[in-house]
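Researcher: Please translate sequence to structure tokens.
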Amino acid sequence: MVVVLEPHRIAYFPIPKVANTSIRNGLRAAVGERGYSNSGNQTMGPLLRRRARGCWKFTVIRDPLARALSGYGNRVVFHRDIERAPVSRALLRLRGLPVDPDLNTFFANLRSYMMVNDRIRRHMMLQRRYLGDALDYFDRIYRIDEIPQLAADLSEQLGREVTIGREQTGGPKYKRADLSEQAESVLRDYLAPDYALLRDHYPEPW
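Model: Translation complete:
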């Protein structure tokens, strides 16, 4: 996924559950619809790189475990993405899995839930899939706690104020201590590639 701001030649590579809705809305408000181009839900690859050629490229990253926990609270509990999808419900019943899983059931069976629901898959997909295998492709990487600095930098580049609010925050909040041993073990293995990629920004919590 890439958002290109024309004619400013700025390219933003969003990641679901890393303030991407808030940032995209802030950019759209700043430049208007005609200056805003969104590639849609694509992972990093040659096509996105071509679209961003010649642009100042940035992204925003998040601690992988915090992102996964937030994704469960927002997409599974608050938005009920699984419960509201008839096909997902049918497939889960065949697998003997609940359509309204608690935290530990969800993460213990993470890959199964990702397979039966596209929204869950996109929001739980590793950040590596959206960023590629090397962070040196980007001109600037912001941690999610650095969004105020991002807004200031974009305001300077665009010559107008960019405001980035907080959206998609609904749902209960969870922490590592809420995880069972089984759920934590699954997440430790699943998130290992992201912690390896983001090792200069986030230490592994295990």
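Researcher: Any highlights?
Model: The chain has a mean pLDDT of 94.
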